[in-house]
Specification:
The chain is of the alpha+beta class. It contains four helices and 13 strands. The chain has one domain: tt1808, chain A. The strands form four sheets. The chain has a six-stranded mixed β-sheet with strand order 3-6-8-9-10-11, with helices on both faces. The chain has a three-stranded mixed β-sheet with strand order 5-4-7, with helices on one face.
Length: 191
């Protein structure tokens, strides 16, 4: 195991950009401080991949779902998150930016895992609301697989629905049907 030299000061966006890539870890910055965690396990990754695919199959043409893309929540102090899935405009995605601003992201989805539950349900919940991310959905993979959807109302998230089994909802005028159970099974959604 090699030891990397990490900065010993609060990071700026320029510092963040200069960091080496670390495929074996998930790295984020929170108020200028690096937060390093192990990569999620296989079931989590399967669920994230399927969720992104299912969204892209159903979203209106002007939107695109992406997995594990850097999202700048705040520049000073620097907070960069890497949501499991986010939705941005297709035109923005086609410009191939290195990272997105939270102001450009109308939907973020986090899939809970062993080491992220509190962060996803508390810290990111408040960060995303303060950054103006309109929709925040949280998926719980423990049986029965479930999802809570939140929408920003007057600068605070309100619960817009809790689902298990098949979630039927709407995003930006497009109906979405997500078989939540299929996120964890061997075969993908077949509705």
């Amino acid at each position: 195991m090699s030891v990397m030299e990490w900065p010993h000061h609060l990071l700026s966006l320029e510092d963040w950009i200069d960091l080496p890539e670390t495929p074996e870890y998930q790295v984020e910055a929170v108020e200028g401080v690096l937060v390093v965690a192990p990569r999620p396990m296989s079931f989590h990754q399967r669920a994230v991949t399927r969720l992104g695919y299912l969204l892209n199959e159903q979203l209106a043409d002007e939107y695109c779902a992406l997995s594990e893309v850097e999202m700048v929540v705040d520049v000073s102090p620097l907070t960069v998150r890497v949501p499991d899935v986010l939705v941005a405009s297709a035109a923005l995605v086609e410009s191939n930016p290195a990272r997105l601003s939270a102001a450009e992201v109308p939907l973020v989805i986090e899939v809970l895992s062993e080491g992220t539950k509190r962060t996803d349900q508390v810290t990111k919940f408040s960060e995303y609301a303060e950054a103006g991310v309109e929709h925040y959905w949280i998926v719980e993979l423990d049986s029965p697989v479930s999802m809570i959807t939140y929408r920003l109302v007057d600068e605070n998230y309100e619960n817009f629905g809790e689902f298990s089994g098949v979630a039927e909802l709407e995003f930006a005028g497009a109906p979405l049907v997500i078989d939540l159970t299929a996120l964890t099974t061997r075969r993908a959604q077949r509705l």
